[in-house]
DNA sequence: GTACATTTCAAACAGTTGTTTAAATTGACT
DNA sequence: AGTCAATTTAAACAACTGTTTGAAATGTAC
């Protein structure tokens, strides 16, 4: 009983670390089981397949994060007047930082995994997201639309995907960017620093005035 | 003589298409030579290795684009007063669209390849870029700094990388986004439409006011 | 046509991948 | 202790990867 839990957990811990560092398809099951110090076959025994292991790794965080976000969105939606866009975006900060309770460096790991999920196995994560958390995402889109009444829905669609790209790419190359910032500007930036730098950038981009032509 | 040129070109054409669609590491040499209708060994014969083939595919576009951009940057730098940020960013539009002369759908293909290069083989493209075109990039950064005198250099560093993420991610998932836009908003958007939508978003994000705290 | 270099080709190479198998081990309960 | 299920293990599987080889074919120049 306790050994089963241990093996599963050891696999998840090693997998998320390697997945975040080098991507899903570039990480082999032998690397994972090697780092976790378990037998190769135990991945298939406990999770079925590599694909299902990837889902399990993501779910460990999504199961905590998404209900939390849903709750925050509902709260904001219940207020009568439209909310400031920066305020809407800031709602992500705390739930994301609380992922550090799930796991050591959980926030960073999850955001890197998110980046990998979108750039590695193209399309799958997008489908998975819409399918499992479509309701929650709809609430967020509604909040943004209320904050930017001047923007047509299609423009908001594009700009939210631009923003997703910013987040996902920044987090996937998080380590490289931190290193460059440290070398070129003597800056030590942690994950919450990056998140707080992102908010004004994203808010300004999403709310940008429409082009004239 | 003409057959050699033909084989090399057929390989490059098939490779760039497959690389753009499914990424570098996910594309096998057998897929490429199959689509190009050439022998498997001819890739190694003409290009040496898969890695060198990837570089050759990128170089076909970079060799045209980067000198063109360098020239535009120098022109803008020679004007005495600082340029509007949107104007600086708009400088990319024409040179990018001219890649359609290099190849059918060249602009789209190149931008997708750029996205793949940054998300697929992590870090390599960044190094390659800085090494070969560092001078040109420095000119661009200088232009942005002149446009945004209120922003410290480190902040511009982060925001330019945020912007790179937006571009790279948007272009890598270009097809998916086009499909969704078509389905949800009855929109038909071509590559130049996406580029022109990007400019105001990026300009507003980069020039966003600094957070107070 | 003969000689020579360039290019193509089928085949094999050595390595990796995710997954499966069947036997061995461990655990829990009577 | 004995029974049965849950788990671990080493080994093998088939499929795939990029690359190399040496012979066949093709092109070029005298």
Interface with most residues: A-B, 52 and 52 residues
How many helices of chain A? 12
Radius of gyration based on Cα positions of chain A: 19 Å
Structural class of chain A: mainly alpha
Subunit organisation of the chains = homodimer
Gap from first CA to last CA of chain A: 66 Å
The low-confidence parts of chain A are none
Number of beta strands of chain A: 0
Name the beta content range of chain A: under 5%
Elements of chain A, N to C (H/E)? HHHHHHHHHHHH
- Helical fraction of chain A: over 70%
Main β-sheet of chain A, in a few words?
none
Q: If you average the pLDDT of chain A, what whole number results?
A: 90
Bulk shape of chain A: globular
In a nutshell, what does this entry contain?
2 copies of one chain form a homodimer. Chain A has 213 residues and is mostly helical.
Task: Walk me through this protein's architecture.
Two copies of one chain form a homodimer. With 213 residues, chain A is mostly helical. Chain A is built from twelve helices and no strands. In chain A, helix 1 packs across helix 4, helix 4 packs parallel to helix 9 and helix 8 packs across helix 10. Chains A and B meet through helix 10, helix 11 and helix 12 of A and helix 10, helix 11 and helix 12 of B. The first copy, chain A, binds a DNA duplex (30 and 30 nucleotides) through helix 1 and helix 3.
